[in-house]
Amino acid sequence: MEATNFSQPLRQSSKGIIIIFAFNAVQFIKKFFVLFIAFGVSFMRRQSFGGITPTMIILGLIAIMLIILIIAILKYLNFKFHLSKDDFHLATGIINKDNTIIPKTKIQNVYIKQNFLQQLINVVSVKIETAGDKKSEIEISALDKPTALLLKKKLFLKAAIENTPLEQHEKRNVFFKISPKRLFLEGVSQNHFKSFLLIFAFIFGLYSEFQQYLEELKIEERIEDIVQLDEDTLFNLLLTNIVILILVVLVSFLFSIIKTFIINFNLEVVEHQKTIEINKGLFNKVSLSLTPSRIQNLVIKTNRLKQYFNLHSLSVKQAMVNAKQQKNFKIVALEKEQLNYLTNKLLTHYNSEIESAKPRPYFMRISALKMLIFGGVVNIITLGLIGVELLWINAVFIPIAMLYVYIGYKKAYYKITDHFITIGSGIIDTTTNILEIHKIQAIKLKQTVFQKRQQISSVIIYTASKSVTIPYINEKDALHIYNFLLYKVESQDKDWM
Amino acid sequence: MTFKNLQIQPESLPKVEDLILRPISKSYFKIITLNKLAIYAGLIGLAFGVVYFVEKNEEVQLNLWYILSILLGFCIVNFIIGYLAFKNRKYAIREHDVVYAKGLIVHSLITMPMSRIQHVEESRSWLARHFGLSTLKIFTAGESGSDLSIKGLPRIEAKQIKEIISARLNGSN
Lengths: 497, 173
What we know:
- Chain A: Keywords: Membrane, Transmembrane, Transmembrane helix.
- The structure holds two protein chains of two kinds.
- By secondary structure, chain A is an alpha+beta fold.
- Chain A has three domains: about 15-165, PH-domain like (Roll), CATH 2.30.29.30; about 170-350, no CATH class; about 360-410, no CATH class.
- Chain A has helices at about 15-30, 35-45, 55-75, 115-120, 145-160, 180-190, 190-225, 230-265, 305-310, 325, 335-345, 360-385, 395-410, 450-455, 475-490; strands at about 80-85, 85-90, 100-105, 105-115, 125-130, 135-145, 175, 270, 275-280, 285-290, 295-305, 310-320, 330-335, 415, 420-425, 430-435, 440-450, 455-465, 465-475.
- In chain A, α1 crosses α3 (about 55-75), α6 (about 180-190) packs antiparallel against α8 and α7 (about 190-225) packs antiparallel against α8 (about 230-265).
- Chain B has two domains: about 25-85; about 90-170, PH-domain like, CATH 2.30.29.
- Helices cover about 45% and strands about 25% of the residues of chain B.
- The model of chain B has no long low-confidence stretch (mean pLDDT about 85).
- Classes of the chains: A alpha+beta, B alpha+beta.
């Protein structure tokens, strides 16, 4: 195929009809799902519904599908885009004609995505995100890949032209490619607690119904022979509980691994001159590029186990990217050197080789208090529901809680250099938050009455993507930091984006 | 352990702690009072209603005075705290930033550099209009927690501040 000329109004690839059709059909089914079920049930019961025969229903469905198909074709025919010198133009709409013009300079991000269906028919969708409204996103849902890449390049070209004279063949330097083994390790070493909770909630719902049934059975048994079974059934119940627990743990384990695999399949980090490109995904392939100037925070996460395998994950928080998209900007299973290299690429001259400062031990007191309240509530609930027998759990809970408090304190630190703030935190995970000082949007000093007496306060730093807290430090230090950061932000004339 | 590695002497930095913050308009306390009175009037009315109905239907004796005195005690404490917290609501406009302090039990001091402000808004509620007050809302690109809303400013002052900030915004861009 010859190089596409974007200056003329273009349609998508004709396969776009399929995508639009599938999308609309799915939406239609989603909207009327409940209706379908209600209708279906009443139909099953009575065999007919107000004189409607099965053939009529099938014909009706075919008619609806045909209408959706016609709408899809019309949508496809009326969807035209082209590039002018500085702008991207898009005309859409069957009856209401919309004409959107986006200046190239205002384009924030261009994503290339490919869901399962798109993979099957070998097209990609291009999503253009602007800095403005969250709603003002444009999606071209079916383009063949070379065209999409060319479009992306052209969209970015004008915006970047003042910085770099265009290099015809920018070399594709694949900086990092994940191996299945490391991906597997990443899946294994994940915080399974989250998927555990997810599955636990799901299974608990099923189990509680099941349990009621069990209990009814048990009562019947008891009536049959009162003397014998009491201890046995209790033991049995405990055993089933344990088996179920192990099953749940196993399932959540598998769940994490599969989830990691699907999301990060073939993860690839490509280094360009200015930007960094991330490609990943099995069913939903995504391709994103990162521009260093838009980055607000970097979050590095690892845990004990991951450290052992040399696995680190790096999340990049950008301004005004919606939460769903934000999740995609995560690179997992990086080695330490790769991580350092990437950090340096994204934040020039990042250095953290200074002595770190720690919060006051008061930190432990607060988290101990929180633990105490949590433990108290849990205790009261177990006492109310189960009785005194289960109070031995405290023997396990208290040491864990103490460890939790201690590790939380041990991992907390902060470093402030001339250009960067680094804050460490975490309990199971080890989290490192890095942000550039000139990206700060506002700073807050927070102090409760109790902290005032001990001259402790916390500093909260807001950026355009998230806020970070330096918890419980000396009031004097806090004020120093406060003044210093303000001075830095206000004295430099650096833009935050 | 202490805060180090500064090339600038921390003593020479402009200090936010030395700043003399301006209190907001005194009449804003009237608005707070009115709001609270409305809530407590509602609660007391509710208490009367509950006692009335319960005594009618059942034999249970609820001590009305007991409930009322608890409510009253609550009300008084709430008012004292409210007043002290009101005293803590202060603000300052510096050359390069806006400072706002509030809160008694949890005291917070937030500073927003002028160069990061996205837009300013002046809004007036029905009650505030009667007292000649306005609320000044200042927005950054940061997440919602970092947006400022200075309540109970005299209208003229709010206008002036808005103009100052707007001028800065237009001047720098």
